[in-house]
Design brief:
The protein has about 375 residues and is of the alpha+beta class. The protein has helices spanning about 15-35, 40-45, 45-55, 60-75, 80-85, 85-95, 100-115, 125-130, 135-145, 155-165, 175-185, 195-205, 225-230, 285-300, 360-375, and strands at about 245-255, 260-265, 275, 280, 305-320, 320-335, 345-350. Helix 3 runs antiparallel to helix 9 and helix 9 (about 135-145) packs across helix 12. It is elongated. Bound molecules: iron/sulfur cluster (SF4).
Length: about 375
């Protein structure tokens, strides 16, 4: 069904002033007791709020904590981040995934230094012009760091508001988004907006869970329309899942006089900016044909001839909707060819040098294997 074919769904009304007052009181009281002690809350300064909000996109707070502490220890200010090499920024981000976030954060820090005298702008429009800052992140930074009266809507508050309102429609469509942003604005108090917005997110992430929301422990349960109607499990409606696609890939660990070849992933690719071993999809399964395929694809990528060797490992992992089986192979460098390689930047590295380069999680696993193999 296309968006224009969708049946018209009447949207619920926003709650009245009395409801909003009771909601704020109950939420604030609950947060006073249940707020988690998180390092970015302790730090409190705008840079810490900004870094944490970028890290928390698509990632749980429990995972982010160690990354946040290391990142802000190594790069404690906007200036330090702006001056850092992108490779060092990505190395600090390694394992957190969605590396575009780190590159945009780095570029935004440089813009802040060049155009805003090193201070995050307090003007919402200016803030949203920085790379990687959308309406939600701007709202979080402005309200939490500067206590400005600005609403937020992210995955947790979107689910929470949808249930409080008993919004049956898809929350991603424009009419629902408009209603949910209006709700986010309507519930805001006049003061302590940053703490209030954090309390909303906390309630969404800790109590109003995606599956099996903890309604018995919820401080706003008497005000929740989904709870009153027993609709918690149906709101928000589940997104249609595209079936996972199985993909076979191979990485070749090409060695030459005790060094191994790494390539920088080009712009527009899955791990743009990171480094990787030559890697590509493969089709052949019979050993002789696969060996030819590895040599041919490595030649196209690197403009080198290689001699593929033994199979080293199989790593199964998922990226978005792809279920990837990655086979790692040893290979020996033979010769450099004339002509253009598909990748622009390659390096021959000693095993100890691999630690200095940002790799994907699977790339790091392969790097440990190659380090062991070359040490023998
Ligand atoms: S009562 Fe249940 S569904 Fe409603 S807000 Fe609380 S946890 Fe979410």
């Amino acid at each position: 069904m296309t968006r224009t074919d969708r049946p018209t769904v009447s949207l619920p009304a926003l709650p009245d002033a009395r409801w909003r007052q009771r909601f704020r009181r109950r939420l604030r009281h609950w947060y006073t007791v249940h707020a988690r002690d998180l390092p970015w809350r302790r730090a409190g300064h705008p840079y810490a709020v900004w870094v944490s909000e970028i890290m928390l996109q698509q990632t749980q707070a429990a995972t982010v904590t160690a990354y946040f502490e290391r990142f802000t220890r190594e790069l404690p200010t906007i200036e330090a981040l702006a001056q850092a090499d992108e490779q060092d920024v990505l190395r600090l981000w390694e394992g957190l995934g969605y590396y575009r976030r780190a590159r945009q954060l780095h570029r935004a820090a440089q813009v802040v230094m060049q155009q805003h005298a090193g201070e995050l702008p307090r003007d919402p429009e200016q803030l949203r012009r920085l790379p990687g800052i959308g309406r939600y992140t701007a709202g979080a930074v402005l309200s939490i760091a500067f206590d400005m009266r600005v609403p937020i809507l992210e995955a947790n508050t979107l689910r929470l508001f949808s249930r409080l309102l008993a919004l049956a429609d898809d929350p991603a469509v424009a009419s629902s988004q408009q209603l949910l942003w209006a709700m986010a604005e309507a519930v805001l108090p006049q003061r302590d907006v940053g703490a209030f917005n954090q309390a909303l997110m906390e309630l969404g992430s800790e109590v109003c869970l995606v599956r099996n929301p903890r309604c018995d422990d919820c401080p706003v349960a008497p005000l929740c329309r989904a709870n009153a109607r027993g609709l918690q499990a149906e709101i928000p409606p589940p997104k249609p899942q595209r079936p996972a696609e199985a993909v076979r890939e191979a990485a070749v660990l090409i060695c030459r006089r005790g060094r191994v070849l790494l390539m920088r992933c080009p712009e527009g690719q899955r791990w743009a900016g990171l480094w990787d071993f030559p890697r590509f999809p493969v089709r052949c399964t019979r050993p002789a044909a696969l060996k030819r395929e590895l040599a041919e694809k490595a030649r196209k990528l690197t403009a080198m001839t290689i001699e593929p060797g033994r199979h080293l490992t199989t790593i199964k992992h998922g990226v978005t909707r792809f279920r990837i089986t990655l086979e790692g192979y040893a290979a020996q460098y033979v010769a450099q060819l004339d002509g253009q390689a598909d990748v622009a930047e390659t390096k021959w590295l000693l095993p100890v040098e691999l630690d200095d380069y940002p790799l994907s999680t699977t790339g790091r696993k392969l790097s440990r294997l190659v380090a062991e193999a070359l040490r023998r």
